[in-house]
Design brief:
heterotrimer, A alpha/beta, B mainly alpha, C mainly alpha, A: alpha/beta, 2 domains, 6-stranded mixed sheet, 3-stranded antiparallel sheet, B: MetI-like fold, 80% helix, 0% strand, transmembrane (chain C), transport (chain C), NitT/TauT family transport system permease protein (chain C)
């Protein structure tokens, strides 16, 4: 594993407190993290640990109440305006009134690409997520796994260097999820994007990531950062190797430790 | 096996027994009554049999048969009991009147529906839609206007008809004005509701694209609001017709469905009144059906349209 | 009541618009009068004139308020035929006419609701009724059935039935159909799993009705009651148009005959107040019932 060339995302002492009717909630406390170019970083932890919140901070969907956070050397909001990242949500969230092609075209229309360029890119990303030929279908005519692949294609369409994914495969069954994990790794290898990936599955985090960020709740914070020793080339059966099991063990220990002192 | 047979038979038998008993009881009172009861019972048993089938034909046949039964009973009852036509004309007389008075009926439809109701409907719904978009960015205005709108929607707004007749004179303009007021608030409330209907996740998605307010409005929120907008458009079709007809009770030129109904009632020309009512029912169904059809085309993607 | 501020603001804006409109709409007549008298009106005189005409095109809010006060409290307490002096409601008082309308509305609403619930039960439990009657009940929502109102009044009048009953019949059929449609939806709202659960207990149809279908239908029931009571009121008012036998509808029509705009507006506000009270009562009962049943949102 080569050392990261430069920091794409860097967080220093990031804090976020929500004011609610039941009093303040400390969603993030003192988060320090650096993500280099081309890394695949997973955020794992129990619900309420702030993993999704931190991803939303990077995307400027939430604003930290303390600390500094930069994306591509800019503030997250500037990065959002510069369309620096693609975001994949827990649900596919495709617009039912648009075809698959139309959904992928949506960000391209908003960002003002011309018609020919739009068609070009739609065809290319559909190929990338293995959905060629489904361009004219409506979302509700596709399976859950295919819909989620289409939403990934939508995030890839405008070629941002960063891909932020919030439990994208959480609602899918295990077999589909395995398949999509494999495809995601292949896609990452081909496009060399920087990926931030939220999950609550240990095998998924270990299988996908170059770096695993273990978080724990109340207040949401990082308890461990694990650099994965696994090679970049990862067939599915790598999950039976001792190295894999060792990393998974360390993640589990980290989660347990975070749970005890919570 | 054995349990089911004694179970099934008494139920089927008792239905017939009850029917025969009802028929005999009616016959003891009056022979005409017996005929009516007989027709009803036979039709109802046929209908039960039809309704037992699960097919498109049966779905259409059952209500049609029921409607026809009522018409036949109506016709028979009027003749058997010699009901004067100033109280209840038979369906045949109404049909005959519709055939001979086609010109009057059509002129009334043009006056009331096309000039009064439709003009008011388009203006009222259009204004409501634009108002909803105009107050979209102000939560303050929405919090103020929505309760007022919900309140006004429950009021007997047809009561403004005499005022509108006074302001805009007897012509169709005053009817259109009543319709505008009647359809405005239900439409406004539905549209505002609809503009809130997009999911937070989908709005977040538009944020990640750094989309502008208008891009989000046209690409996400208006399409997502379509089912609500059409709900408003459908409710208000009936309101528009009611407004246009009832407003004519307060004064109109010598033309229009409401005018015809109120004056013919006065002249005891009930066949013409019924003819106008049939026309109103048909026009109302067509109006509603047309909007529903458009809804099906534009919101084909919504789960309620996909079966 | 965090909406109170915005609502009051909107109401205040409406009042301001109303005053401005009253000045604008009544200005022509005031100028006309002044021209006949050979005088010229200044702005403040014009405003004063427009807001104090006896038959304005648009009476100002305070004129309507005064009319309401006159035709309720003053009429009943000081009028020769008022409640105090004669012991019964004055026929010239808005209270009397509102009461006529309200009583017809309530009788009709009760009949319509009762019959509507019964038919809904029949539709849910009888396949033939469902298939043959339900489509008509739904279609009735799309047609202006209110148009039959004048005929019912006049025909019943001609066979000697007048007063409350004909109006109540119109109120009844206007509230009937919304209740049927809402109640059928409500009685069918329990899903297959809930019905299957009762089947595992070997519960009979009656038990399924009282323990599951009827409670589950309550939110739908109250929603259609609100629609129904508003429709009942409209029905009673329209039913008062063809024959002048009192009621708010008759007041509206009389006002429009004689150009008594303040009277029209007063009747209109009385009708609005009735509607608000009726819908409010249904809403309060709904809230209490649903809260007690643990179904309130």
């Amino acid at each position: 594993m080569a050392a990261p060339v430069q920091n794409i995302i860097s967080a220093r002492n990031v804090d976020l407190t929500f004011q609610t009717a039941d009093g303040p909630i400390h969603a993030l406390k003192g988060v320090d993290l650096a993500i280099g170019k081309g890394e695949f970083v997973s955020f794992i932890g129990p619900s309420g640990c702030g993993k999704t919140t931190f991803l939303r901070c990077i995307a400027a969907l939430e604003t930290p109440t303390g600390g500094t956070l930069t994306v591509n050397g800019m503030s997250p909001d500037e990065a959002r305006r510069a369309r620096a990242y693609g975001y994949v949500f827990q649900a596919a969230g495709l617009y039912p009134w648009r075809t698959i092609g139309g959904n992928i075209r949506l960000p391209l229309e908003i960002m003002g690409y011309d018609k020919a360029e739009q068609a070009d890119r739609v065809a290319r990303v559909l190929e990338l997520v293995d959905l060629a030929g489904f361009e004219k279908k409506y979302p509700w005519q596709l399976s859950g796994g295919m819909q989620q692949r289409a939403s990934i294609a939508r995030a890839l369409a405008f070629d941002a260097d960063i891909l932020l994914m919030d439990e994208p495969f959480g609602a899918l069954d295990e077999i589909v999820r395995d398949h999509l994990n494999e495809q995601l790794l292949a896609l990452w290898a081909r496009t060399e994007k920087t990926i931030g990936f939220v999950t609550h599955s240990i095998p998924e985090a270990v299988y996908l990531s170059t770096k695993i960020v273990v978080m724990s709740p109340r207040p949401g914070r990082i308890t461990d950062i694990i650099e994965s020793p696994l090679p970049k080339e990862r067939p599915l059966d790598i999950r039976d190797t001792p190295e894999f099991i060792a990393v998974a063990h360390r993640v589990r220990e980290g989660l347990r430790a975070g749970h005890q002192d919570a | 096996m054995f349990k089911q047979i004694p179970f099934a038979r008494p139920v089927g038998m008792s239905k017939i027994v009850w029917s025969v008993a009802a028929f005999v009881a009616a016959a003891l009172i009056d022979r005409s009554l017996a005929l009516l009861v007989g027709v009803w019972l036979v039709a109802w048993h046929v209908n039960s049999w039809v309704a037992g089938h699960e097919s498109r034909l049966a779905r259409m046949a059952a209500p049609t048969l029921f409607g026809l039964t009522l018409l036949v009973l109506w016709e028979l009852a009027v003749h058997l009991f010699a009901v004067p036509s100033v109280i209840l004309p038979p369906p045949s007389a109404i049909a005959a009147r519709m055939a001979t008075s086609g010109g009057i009926l059509w002129a009334d439809v043009v006056q009331t529906v096309f000039k009064g109701a439709l003009t008011g409907y388009v203006m009222g719904c259009g204004t409501a839609l634009l108002t909803a978009i105009a107050i979209d960015r102000s939560t303050f205005l929405q919090r103020g206007l929505l309760p007022v709108g919900n309140f006004v929607a429950a009021l007997p707004i047809v009561g403004v008809a005499p005022i509108m007749v006074m302001w805009f004179n007897f012509g169709w303009e005053s009817k259109a004005a009543v319709v505008v007021i009647m359809v405005f608030f239900p439409m406004l409330v539905n549209t505002v509701e609809g503009l809130k209907a997009s999911e937070p996740m989908q709005r977040d998605l538009m944020r990640t694209y750094s989309a502008s307010y208008w891009q989000t409005l046209f690409k996400l929120r208006l399409p997502a609001a379509m089912p609500f907008i059409f709900n408003g458009l459908k409710i208000t079709t009936t309101l528009a017709l009611i407004g246009a007809i009832v407003a004519e009770f307060f004064g109109s030129p010598v033309l229009g469905m409401g005018f015809r109904i109120s004056t013919s009632v006065g002249q005891l020309a009930l066949d013409l009144v019924w003819a106008e009512i049939v026309v109103a029912a048909v026009v109302g169904s067509i109006f509603y059906g047309a909007v529903a059809l458009l809804e099906g085309v534009l919101t084909f993607w919504h789960p309620s349209q996909r079966e | 009541m965090r909406n109170l501020g915005p609502v009051l603001t909107v109401v205040a804006v409406i009042l301001v618009i109303w005053y401005v409109a009253a000045v604008g709409l009544n200005a022509a007549w005031a100028r006309d009068q002044a021209a006949r008298a050979g005088t010229e009106l200044g702005f403040s005189e014009l405003v004063g004139q427009t807001l104090s005409q006896s038959r304005p095109k648009l009476p100002a809010p305070h004129q309507v308020a005064a009319e309401i006060w006159q035709s309720t409290w003053v009429e009943e307490t000081q009028g020769r035929r008022g409640l105090i002096k004669s012991g019964s409601l004055s026929q010239r008082s808005l209270v009397y006419h509102a009461w006529l309308t309200l009583s017809a509305t309530m009788v009709g609403f009760a009949i319509g609701t009762g019959a509507g619930v019964l038919l809904a039960v029949g539709i849910v439990y009888n396949r033939a009724m469902d298939k043959s009657v339900m489509p008509w009940a739904i279609a009735s929502q799309t047609i202006p059935i209110l148009a039959i109102a004048p005929m019912i009044i006049v025909v019943l009048n001609s066979i000697g039935i007048s007063g409350l009953l004909p109006k109540a019949i119109i109120s009844a059929y206007l509230s009937f159909f919304p209740v049927v449609v809402g109640m059928v939806k409500g009685l069918r709202s329990p899903d297959a799993m809930q019905l299957d659960l009762l089947r595992t207990y070997s519960a009979g149809p009656a038990q399924a009705f009282w323990k599951l279908r009827l409670p589950a239908s309550m939110p739908y029931f109250f929603a259609s009651l609100k629609v129904g009571v508003a429709a009942s009121l409209v029905g009673a008012i329209v039913g008062e148009l063809p024959v002048q036998q009192g009621g708010l509808g008759a007041r509206l029509l009389a006002g429009s005959y004689y150009g008594q705009t303040a009277q029209i507006w007063a009747a209109l506000f009385a009708a609005a107040a009735l509607a608000a009270v009726l819908v409010g009562i249904v809403g309060a009962v709904q809230k209490r019932t649903l809260t007690r049943m643990g179904m309130a949102r």
